[in-house]
Input
Amino acid sequence: MEDWTTATLAALERDGRRRSAARTAVIELLGRQSCCVNAQEIFDALRHEGRRVGIASVYRTLEQLTRDGFVQRVDVGASTARYEPVHPGGEHHHHLVCADCGKVEAFADPELERALHKVEGDTGYSVAHDVVLRGVCDDCAT
Ligand SMILES: [Zn+2]
Ligand SMILES: [Zn+2]
Ligand SMILES: [Zn+2]
Output
């Protein structure tokens, strides 16, 4: 599997995009996440690393990457959108969201993937799917 960060930077280069320090910083940070993050978290993490990137550039970069298909916007129903790298090989996971504390957790289920692919085959639709399960997490339930 090609590293998402390398692949994304290379693809943008091939497109002849002007290099941007902010974009590179955001892409490198996203590539290290195991799950989706929001713009504020990216901004805070970059600040923490001593990278001087403005919050507006973070938003702009996320919008661009989403439009270009490198990043997927994950709608977890919270007030802020979360973003996750899209892997070219199609490997991905889905999300559980706690209605109480807003925690987002990842889950993957081969059975679910098979069921979704069957829908694709049955309907002839080429579907991009995004599954979000809402509930109350372990911590909040007790
Ligand atoms: Zn995720
Ligand atoms: Zn919770
Ligand atoms: Zn899936």
Observations:
- The longest strand covers residues 94-98.
